[in-house]
Amino acid sequence: MVKKSVFFLMLACVFLVFSQIGSVSADSSYQISKVGKPITNSTAITAVSGNDAEGNAYMYILLQGEPAQLAVFDLFNKKMVDQKALAGSSSGWAIEVDEKGEVWIGGTPSNKLYKYNPNQKKLTDLGKATSGSTSIHDIEVDHHGNVYGSTSYEGGVFKYSGGKFQNLGQAANGKTIGRSLAYYPATNTMFVGVGANADLIAWNLSSNAKKSILPQQYKNATSVYDLDQAGGVLFAKLENKQTILMFDAKTYKFKGELTAKSRGVSKLAPNGKDVYFTNDYHLQKMDLQTGKVTASRKTLQGTEAVSLDFVKKGSKTYLAGLLGNTGTFFTYDVASEELVVDHFALPAAGVPIYNLAAGPDGNIYISSYVSDKMGVYHPQSKTFSSISRIGQVESFATVNGKFYLGVYPAGVISELKAPSSPTQLFTIGNGQNRPVAMTGVKGTNYLFIGTHPKNGEIGGSLTIYDTIARNHSVRRNIVKDQSIISLTAHQSYVYGGTSIFSGKNLEGKQNAILFRMKSSSPAGKIEILPLGIKNPRMIHALAADAKKIYGLSDGNFFSYDPQTKKTQTVNIVKNTSGRFNNGTLVIGNDGLIYGTVEGTLFSVHPGTFKKEILKSTGAERLTKGADGVIYFTSKDELFSLKAHQKVMWGKTELLKGQIGKVTIKQAAALWKRNDDGTLEKERTLKPGEEFRVYRYLAEKSGLYGVGGGLFIEKNSASVHYETPSKSKLALLK
Fold first, then answer.
1. Domain that holds residue 557
2. Looking at the structure, do residues 607 and 725 belong to the same domain, yes or no?
3. Are 682 and 592 in the same domain?
4. How far is 728 from 733, CA to CA, in rounded Å?
5. What is the pTM of this model?
6. 440 and 514 both lie in a single domain
7. Is residue 10's pLDDT more than 80?
8. Of 223, 245, 238, 147, which Cα lies nearest the Cα of 190?
9. pLDDT mean over 88-112
């Protein structure tokens, strides 16, 4: 009977458990809530035009979003006739129409190939092209209908034929970016533009012979960004240049330069001698036989061409092109030379979130991928606003109440005074374009900035900005050939973590390092710290509390004690991808360390090092708001994470459904209600025992229901009853 009673009481949870609220919570109950989509936009990445089997002329536009979208527009009535989601992709750089009018699409970061049939309005997901890449940058279809794609970060080319993928390998040793493709059927040669730095490879698909044909003076460019072949001439557009190089596609002889701002040139015009491009907001026609260039009479209204394709409308031939990324396009009657500039109403979509941080004003600032819009979440009003003309923010930091942004692609450091657009302070330069880590240090005026180099450069930098004197210094390659990708401040030091993926293949040759330097001496030496982790490749996040430094390295969470110089680790995920931007850490108000890595949201207890996986997929970046709430991102959405906060009533926790509590003053009976409604004494209660009360019955002198079918009789001499205050009850809601 005793064993039965004790077991029954345990199941019923009727005894109050006295628990002190300590500095670190061990409660594993969390609430994840969707906050909303901070940024919506209509951003056209690229496009292609063509005719379906019935002769309808369409422009196929790839839109950024979660997921990315294919929007199909009738060119001449401007109506959207179809829209398809590109599952698994948030963007797409590659799109091509084959001779049958079918559309081939390359996804990012899925590395997927898709096929769209305009006659059936059917999209087919053909799967991942290669195992080691994230992006398909360009697509070409040969005269046999074989599909080729160039990829990053393998810098390779794949072939899709007969329903199967074949990885043809890397175009050039050491070149990880396969940026562009052009096919010359006369010699079965695929031209591949690669980076970084730039090279142009002529790849004979029959013999498998490869030859670099880019003149040496152009190899300092980042990549060969666009390739087109028309009339036996190869056109190669250099990245971030207004220069197109021309080659003989058969002999590879360099023919000279062409000034152009468009993304390459058109295919050969129906007359067999002209190609088109845009420059200085005009459509330009080049006669391949004479080299003469003629500009259109009308302008393109302040934009340049992203795509250039010939389509038919009845017996007439038109050149059509997307202008910019907002839906503006043009049609050009080749015979009459009539140029019409118009606009499609692009559908809006949620924009993929790239980064976020809590600002000094208590708001959450959210940077988007590719789009220059920044979302702002206002926790007090639970509303969103936006700020334009920002760029892609790689890092945020607050110094003495001022909010700083590190912006890609120019490596710009700006100060933001919301709701105004940011003020640009300086550009880091020195071959750096990604300010991926920033931290301010209390008690100083310094902003420390860690950078990753632009493509083609080797080694990052540590930049120190004096926010009072408003000057900065750049310490390039402070860790030779490595990027500074994480920073945090602790006591009188700044701690930094590096990545070996900094423009040079160092895997297996060097390890990432943890270092520190005196925050008051930004020009001083760095101290390399013993991390105790085997062959780290990246230390991609750092945070600190009063005692220790916490970090992420290749999917491992670690703590470093500056006093003992000892490291403790726990694995979170087995494998990590990327080069630098794949992990975040914050210290929660409950003392736990919260983080994300490879889509996993987790917490770690700093004392026991017990980890808890809170979300196993989809969690990307996180920050802690001024309200103590953890905010994290997933694709285009913002979420909040709230730990279960115990509502304490004296020494005990107040639970939902509880109406009061009783304290035994003198010996009293604990009653059990039988199935027939009678009461049977369970045991005698001792003075000092406490019970939660969940209901009250007006039976006998009154019965307090304490859960599990058990009751205590109302008796002011032996039982003290209390009810919680309204404020306590409100905290439970």
1. 30-37+355-643
2. no
3. no
4. 10
5. 0.79
6. yes
7. no
8. 147
9. 97
